């Protein structure tokens, strides 16, 4: 047997199913982590602005990603893993945001969830795990796909949680 062919066969036997194959959103998966976060923030900003909300743009050095009608909002973005979970990295408890939006990118859909800072601090958003052992500053939040909500109710959820009126009956 040809050793190359043998190795190819073994690799194929151990290759997990690629849930992203033929995905219209595969481009997101191919980006670096910093670009993924920027894309998630830009998506949320643009989506909310199209709904008529006043949203200011933070930058990479700002402590908070954006201001939505006076509320400080932090956005974390992650893609769906083969195990059906999202890992939202670098959740900070030492920053002065009012709300945390977690945006989940799936092969064929977008999902989200939204918590206020108290819920994040008290573990009601989920169990936070330190990104590095004993550093206690930046955490990861792992969420199952079933814990997330469809993007179709995003505007209504933002309106309710931030106590806003959406213009034009949106």
Structural summary, described in words:
This protein is 28% helix and 29% strand. It contains five helices and nine strands. The strands form two sheets. Strands 1-2-3-5-6-9 form a six-stranded mixed sheet. It has a three-stranded antiparallel sheet with strand order 4-8-7, with no helix packed on it. It is of the alpha+beta class. Strand 5 and strand 6 (110-116) form a beta hairpin. It has helices at residues 3-14, 26-29, 33-50, 117-121, 154-161; strands at residues 55-57, 66-68, 71-79, 85-92, 99-105, 110-116, 128-130, 138-144, 149-150.
Note the beta-strand portion.
25-35%
The biggest beta sheet is recorded as: 6 strands, mixed
Record the strand order, biggest sheet: 1-2-3-5-6-9
| Residues in helix, % | 25-40%
Low-confidence stretches: none
- Number-wise, the strands total 9
Distance between the termini: 64 Å
Q: Label the structural class.
A: alpha+beta
Gross morphology: globular
Radius of gyration: 18 Å
Question: Total helix count?
Answer: 5
Global mean pLDDT: 90
Oligomerization category of the chains in this entry: single chain
Sequence of secondary-structure elements: HHHEEEEEEHEEEH
